[in-house]
């Protein structure tokens, strides 16, 4: 199953590439393909003949390639968070990142201490606040000589595009174990989506995005040992994901994973009955999905995993017969799997 990022928006008609006939017409008219302006990576392309100017991030941050920029930490490669300046070399990193080093990762100088760089952090915060909020610069007159004099900036809600940017930065920080940075970016993203829901209502797209972000916030809390907050985020994630159609395999998988994560936290906390309840809910979601897609190996594997989780709790609760039955059913499902070369990822999961 190919995952689908909940922040990938459906293509709009105006974003679609011109049909072959249009390109042929341009070629016949003598248009130089190299002179065609590239599409804005944020999707803020101007409609034809509008005189609009597609903005580009002046610092090089891009929602598709996510290259490093001057406000990036060279350790976690995400935007700087809780900036710390090394003494005496003055190189700046995220505080949580650089505290793991005795020598500066950039120049190799001994780190005698660190100082907070509030001015740079303020710049980063302002950059995040403004990033992706300018829709386009627009002029009524398309005369190029008058563009700079008459252009006005139109601000529109583009929180979804900014959301993709923030999530990517958060994922970078989380992979580098800079969890507080990831949590901060995800919190801003969740706030953006909540504001959008307040204005436009709970659409499937927004519920999917918020459910995914809340789940990632739950992962952040779990990583720092805040189980109570993790459960709260996971439960809220489940609440939004349950509003979505059950025929989307990726959303169904995300929902079942969130339920299992709550079950895991309850299990480790010693609340076996609550853990079994969440594991059972996840199992039901996965079994329903498997009925709709019986030939998809990932769905069968998910059911087998959930059967094992429920059976493990049953064993801990002393329900040996139920546990044995659950394990046997899971084993049969795994034995029925026939993995192809493109399913190598699933084969590794089975192991």
From TrEMBL:
Which segments carry the region annotation Disordered? Answer: 1-39
Q: Does the keyword Zinc-finger apply?
A: yes
Q: What are the residue boundaries of the RING-type domain, all occurrences included? A: 73-107
Carries keyword Kinase? no
The entry's keywords = Metal-binding, Zinc, Zinc-finger
Q: Which domain of life is it from?
A: Eukaryota
* UniProt GO molecular function: zinc ion binding
Instruction: Check the record and name the InterPro entries matching this protein.
Output: TPR-like_helical_dom_sf (IPR011990), Znf_RING (IPR001841), Znf_RING/FYVE/PHD (IPR013083), Znf_RING_CS (IPR017907)
Q: Name one GO cellular component term.
A: cytoplasm
Q: Entry's Gene3D superfamilies? A: Tetratricopeptide repeat domain, Zinc/RING finger domain, C3HC4 (zinc finger)
Name listed for the protein in its UniProt record? RING-type domain-containing protein
Record organism: Eucalyptus globulus (Tasmanian blue gum)
């Amino acid at each position: 199953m190919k995952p689908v990022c909940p922040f990938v928006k459906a293509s709009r008609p105006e974003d679609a590439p011109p049909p072959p006939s249009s390109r042929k017409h341009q070629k016949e008219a003598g248009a130089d393909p190299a002179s065609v302006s590239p599409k804005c990576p944020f999707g803020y392309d101007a409609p034809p003949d509008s005189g609009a100017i597609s903005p580009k991030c002046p610092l090089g941050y891009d929602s598709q390639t996510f290259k490093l920029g001057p406000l990036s930490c060279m350790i976690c490669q995400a935007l700087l968070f809780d900036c710390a300046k090394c003494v005496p070399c003055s190189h700046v990193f995220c505080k949580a990142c650089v505290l793991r080093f005795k020598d500066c990762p950039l120049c190799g100088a001994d780190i005698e201490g660190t100082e907070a760089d509030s001015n740079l952090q303020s710049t980063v915060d302002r950059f995040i606040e403004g990033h992706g909020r300018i829709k386009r610069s627009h002029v009524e007159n398309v005369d190029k000589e008058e563009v700079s004099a008459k252009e006005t900036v139109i601000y529109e809600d583009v929180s979804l595009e900014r959301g993709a940017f923030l999530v990517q930065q958060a994922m970078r920080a989380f992979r580098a174990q800079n969890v507080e940075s990831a949590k901060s970016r995800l919190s801003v993203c969740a706030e953006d989506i909540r504001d959008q829901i307040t204005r436009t209502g709970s659409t499937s797209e927004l519920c999917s995005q918020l459910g995914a972000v809340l789940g990632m916030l739950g992962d952040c809390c779990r990583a720092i040992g805040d189980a109570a907050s993790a459960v709260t985020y996971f439960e809220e994630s489940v609440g939004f994901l349950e509003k979505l159609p059950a025929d989307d395999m990726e959303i169904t998988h995300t929902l079942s994973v969130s339920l299992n994560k709550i079950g895991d936290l309850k299990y480790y906390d010693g609340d076996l009955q609550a853990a079994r309840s969440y594991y059972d809910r996840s199992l039901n979601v996965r079994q329903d999905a498997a009925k709709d897609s019986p030939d998809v190996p990932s769905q069968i594997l998910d059911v087998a995993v959930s059967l094992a989780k429920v059976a493990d709790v049953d064993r801990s609760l002393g329900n040996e017969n139920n546990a044995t039955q659950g394990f046997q059913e899971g084993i049969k499902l795994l034995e029925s799997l026939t993995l192809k070369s493109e399913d190598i990822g699933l084969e590794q999961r089975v192991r």
